[in-house]
Automatic annotation (TrEMBL):
<feature type="transmembrane region" description="Helical">
    <location>
        <begin position="472"/>
        <end position="491"/>
    </location>
</feature>
<feature type="transmembrane region" description="Helical">
    <location>
        <begin position="133"/>
        <end position="155"/>
    </location>
</feature>
<keyword id="KW-0813">Transport</keyword>
<feature type="transmembrane region" description="Helical">
    <location>
        <begin position="47"/>
        <end position="67"/>
    </location>
</feature>
<feature type="transmembrane region" description="Helical">
    <location>
        <begin position="224"/>
        <end position="244"/>
    </location>
</feature>
<protein>
    <submittedName>
        <fullName>BCCT family transporter</fullName>
    </submittedName>
</protein>
<keyword id="KW-1133">Transmembrane helix</keyword>
<dbReference type="GO" id="GO:0005886">
    <property type="term" value="C:plasma membrane"/>
</dbReference>
<feature type="transmembrane region" description="Helical">
    <location>
        <begin position="311"/>
        <end position="329"/>
    </location>
</feature>
<dbReference type="InterPro" id="IPR000060">
    <property type="entry name" value="BCCT_transptr"/>
</dbReference>
<feature type="transmembrane region" description="Helical">
    <location>
        <begin position="256"/>
        <end position="276"/>
    </location>
</feature>
<keyword id="KW-0472">Membrane</keyword>
<feature type="transmembrane region" description="Helical">
    <location>
        <begin position="7"/>
        <end position="27"/>
    </location>
</feature>
<keyword id="KW-1003">Cell membrane</keyword>
<keyword id="KW-0812">Transmembrane</keyword>
<feature type="transmembrane region" description="Helical">
    <location>
        <begin position="402"/>
        <end position="429"/>
    </location>
</feature>
<feature type="transmembrane region" description="Helical">
    <location>
        <begin position="88"/>
        <end position="113"/>
    </location>
</feature>
Length: 501
């Protein structure tokens, strides 16, 4: 086993994140100022880079799906689909930032409601319900889907057993992949993954803590938050021991919880007509204004809305491109490239839009129709959890709703980190076949690592924000690597076609 592990790809990025975490906790003010300066520079001065990359990759995915490349089967001619369409779709949605999607669904409209730009466009009702669909819509999903196709082609068609970011660039970089350039690519990729996953818990754990404390009449504390993290870790550590079968079953379970939560809010909340009509209008508004929203950069910086929001989301999803597309590509064996792209969009957007339309518009209804000051609460206190709790208290049997919300978020996080643990475990090997699962000891190691850093960082809010900023900054080189992978994919396909002539 020792000779198979790529210790360079395991130890170096892990040490890098640990050292930065320590620096943030020892020197919180100086590190925060430095990171904020770099983050603002990338968002303000280099925002066009992220915007062009996002829109370009989306258009590229559509081209690939409907071109001759769309007919290519991810696998051998005799290979059959490993999962049914429904199970495959559940695994795609739950392996991504599903817990983040659920969290932002509840409050993102309220964040936009405080933006002057939204008022300039035409008001909260029309645009605060539209922008969440844009920022969590086709462009960010294209980042996953295009790379999933590239990884799937590498694994199932070309049969490469070196499952790393750098290996996908081999058609372009050739032997340089085995040298320093390949090591740099892998180092950046794993560092970005660990930094991103180490902080993603910061979004939902305060809400989970508030919900559970409200239901059981406990006093909210850091210890309860740590216990919640340990419960999540226990669930996904046990599940990952069962490999892909365990992940598949957990994905199905949390999908049923998610659907139950949506039905509870849609029907039980009494705002079904408002929710559906607002959602229908928002989709129409998005389709009508999609290109304008994707290309608006506010050159005069009158509001800096695209820099503060659009660029942020594009970068945030780029960081997660290190792992999730590998997982999607792996489970797409037996499907054509066109099926993978269109199916990925269908299932990804179905889950995302359902969440934002039902959960988001219910909260919007409470403010627009009944005067619940959700957006003002967030603007005054910055406490998203308290605002979301106020929304849930308007539902019938709010404690039942909060228990359902908590169970769904925990299940989502467990499924997401199951997928990430499987990918990073495979990444830890020098070579491993696509149909071979990594050793349970390696999976357990990464499952523990993924939970230790968030627990350590819970005790310093500025460190959490700073490390999250590091993951956003890491998206800059990741964007370049994504371009290299796409170019390599086209070169590899062309080389295969040429060899078959």
């Amino acid at each position: 086993m020792k000779t198979e592990i790529d210790w360079y790809a395991v130890i170096n990025p892990l040490l890098g994140v640990v050292i930065i975490s320590i620096l943030f906790m020892v020197f919180p003010e100086n590190s925060t100022k430095t990171i904020q300066t770099v983050r603002v520079f990338l968002g303000d001065r280099c925002g066009l880079y992220y915007a062009v990359l996002g829109l370009g990759i989306f258009l590229c995915s559509i081209y690939i799906a409907f071109s001759k490349y769309g007919k290519i089967l991810l696998g051998k001619p005799e290979d059959k689909k490993q999962y049914s369409s429904v199970r495959w779709g559940m695994m795609i949605f739950t392996s991504t930032m599903a817990a983040d999607i659920l969290f932002y669904s509840l409050c993102e409209w309220a964040l936009y409601a405080n933006e002057p730009y939204i008022e300039e466009l035409g008001g909260i009702q029309k645009w605060a319900s539209t922008y969440p669909l844009f920022h969590w819509g086709p462009i960010v999903w294209s980042l996953y889907i295009v790379l999933a196709v590239a990884f799937g082609f590498m694994l199932h068609v070309r049969g490469r057993n070196r499952q790393k970011f750098s290996e996908t660039c081999r058609p372009l970089l050739r032997d340089k992949v085995d040298g320093i350039w390949g090591k740099i690519i892998d180092l950046v990729a794993v560092f970005a993954l660990i930094a991103g996953t180490a902080t993603t818990f910061s979004l939902a754990t305060p809400l989970l803590s508030s919900a559970i404390c409200y239901v059981f009449h406990w006093e909210r504390s850091t210890n309860i938050t740590v216990i919640i993290l340990l419960v999540i870790a226990a669930i996904y550590t046990m599940t990952v021991w069962f490999g892909m079968k365990g992940i598949s079953k957990l994905a199905a379970s949390c999908s049923y919880l998610f659907i139950t939560l949506l039905v509870y809010v849609l029907i039980g909340g009494g705002e079904c007509t408002y929710i559906l009509e607002t959602g229908f209008s928002a989709i129409g508004n998005l389709v009508q204004n999609f290109i304008g929203m994707a290309t608006w950069m506010d050159p005069l910086r009158t509001t800096s809305f695209p820099q503060n929001w659009t660029v942020y989301y594009w970068a945030y999803w780029m960081v997660w491109c290190v792992a999730t597309p590998f997982f999607i590509g792996k489970i797409s064996k037996g499907r054509t490239i066109k099926e993978t792209i269109l199916g990925g969009y269908a299932w990804g957007l179905l889950g995302t839009f359902s969440s934002f339309i039902i959960l988001g518009n219910y909260g919007l209804a409470q403010q627009m129709k009944y005067g619940l000051p959700v957006s003002q609460m967030i603007a005054d206190t910055g406490d998203y959890s308290a605002a979301i709790m106020c929304i849930f208290k308007t539902l019938p049997l709010p404690k039942v709703a909060l228990v359902l919300l908590s169970m769904t978020m925990i299940a989502f996080y467990a499924t997401t980190f199951d997928a990430l643990t499987m990918v990073i475990s495979v990444y830890s090997y020098k070579k491993i076949k696509s149909d071979v699962e990594p050793d349970k000891k390696v999976r357990t190691f990464w499952a523990i690592v993924f939970i230790l850093l968030p627990i350590a960082l819970l005790f310093s809010e500025e460190s959490m924000y700073s490390l999250q900023s590091v993951s956003i900054i890491a998206a800059f080189p990741i964007g370049i690597i994504i371009l290299l992978i796409i170019i390599s994919f086209f070169m590899d396909v062309h080389s295969m076609e040429k060899s078959q002539e």
